[in-house]
Amino acid sequence: MDKKIFVFGHLNPDTDSICSAIAYANLKKELGYNNVIAARLGAINRETKFVLRYFDVECPILLDNVEPQVSDLNFYASELVYKDDSVKTVWELMQNNRKKMFPVVDKKKRLAGVVSITDIATSYMELSDEMTVKNQRTKFSKLIEALDGKVIEGSYPYEYVEGNIYTDSTLDEDQTLTKGDIVITGHVKKLHKKVAKSGAGCIIVAEGKITKKLFNDEEEYNCAIVSVPHTFFKTIKLINQSIPVHSIMKKKNLVYFQMDDYIDEVKEIMQSSSYRNFPVVDSEGVVKGIISRRHLIDIDRKNVILVDHNEKGQSIKGLEKANILEIIDHHRVADIYTMSPLYFRAEPVGSTSTIISKMYKENNIKPSKSIAGIMLSAILSDTLLFKSPTCTQEDKNEAKYLAKIAGVNIESYGMKLITAGTSLEGKTAEQIYYSDMKKFVFGKYNVVISQINTADFKGIFDLINDIKEMMHRLCEVEKYDLALLMVTDIVLGGTELIAIGPAKELALKAFGIDIKEDSIFLPGVLSRKMQVVPKLMNAVQ
After folding, report:
1. pLDDT tens digits, one per residue of 416-460
2. Looking at the domain that runs over 72-123+247-297, which CATH code has it been given?
3. Which of 346, 353, 348 is nearest to 398 (CA)?
4. Closest by alpha carbon to 350, among 306, 309, 389?
5. For the chain, which residues make up each domain, given as ranges?
6. 3-class DSSP state for residue 142?
7. Residue 179 burial (C-beta neighbours within 10 Å; 0-12, 13-18, 19+)
8. Helix, strand, or coil here: 491?
9. Do residues 139 and 244 lie in contact, with contact meaning Cβ atoms separated by under 8 Å?
């Protein structure tokens, strides 16, 4: 129960869509699902804003798609390699973890590069002269660590190796070195005096055999004495493994993915890349793990619950790639397919919030004042204050129950609600049409229907030419066969239906619109779901 579950209504959400998502997410939390999140698929309208402000409820988060992302992959966490870690440390990690690549990070665990077994092998072959350790900015402590050494006496004067590395056999009898230089000597005692007088800042004695000469004759040396347990040959071999991994890692043209990258994009990049493993980082660049091609077949799809819709065309992008857990709706059953069984509850009532209110009762949970208030608002909005033909006795019963908890009068609050949502002041043609637009497929026809409830008929018809032009563009650009706009006046108790598009004859068959006209007034028509959609379906048949 750790993975997030998103609850959302349809595109271009109305009050019922938003309030149902909030109320149902709250119910799931009351039942113990703390990972449930209410969401929305578009901007909220004026009516819904009024409701949320009135009952002091936070607006749901906005989702634009549920396409699988890197965060949905079951990728594995990776051991982290820091920039200053020695090559030896990385090599041992590779051997212990049986991995051929590790991400390299800075002190804040942000991606700095990647290192592979090939990089280590290449460095081992190419870095071989006495200046290598100095040139690669190697910390003295990392050098001693790589050699499994122990400082017996004195100290090296620098944090990083500042000189070259020699062996006792490369020194002349009277050669003088700098305090940054390091000399490696074996256990042959006669060589120790020559090494001690060289002036080097550090003497590394292989096989751990330190002579008294080096300890007692303080005039002959002033440097760090390091004991190493390995043979002279192995000590030389380990020197290059002390260099920091940042000196050999790849840091240009890195191929990595972020947690919010989409899987389709990841697939394309992987297919064109010669690499097999890729770092994963969050938005701050912090490494979260590693993915490979095999992880793409093990996707933990996003979990979603749909409310107030069950049509693919009215839902979010990528829905077919999500895991639909539940559907709570009051519309016709349409074209959504699922990968596994789910809880599906659809009832012929006027509002999805009516169903959800009943579910609160069924689970013996009393909603809070604010949750009751938004569910009441959704019922009043969807049933047009109980005047819509979609309204049932169950809607009225639940509304009365919720109004009592919310502490409001249905009639007075309902008029405030409707008034808040019907004002068209400052709205453009696009804002009016898209505010409650739904897409439908009737046989071979793609149809879009928008409905606006208003008492401001004059405001609509002042913009009628702009609205019709916009509807024409919508049909041309989006390839819709028919675009309808329902301008519903609950005071008059009817709808002005505007029809645009190449399949306008459907509106003629269904509603009797004159083929030479673009609109008709339909007395008593208030519901898109019960009075418009069914007639269009019959006209198609």
Report:
1. 898 787 767 778 889 889 888 999 999 999 999 999 887 667 777
2. 3.10.580.10
3. 353
4. 389
5. 5-68+302-422, 72-123+247-297, 128-242, 429-540
6. helix
7. middle
8. coil
9. yes
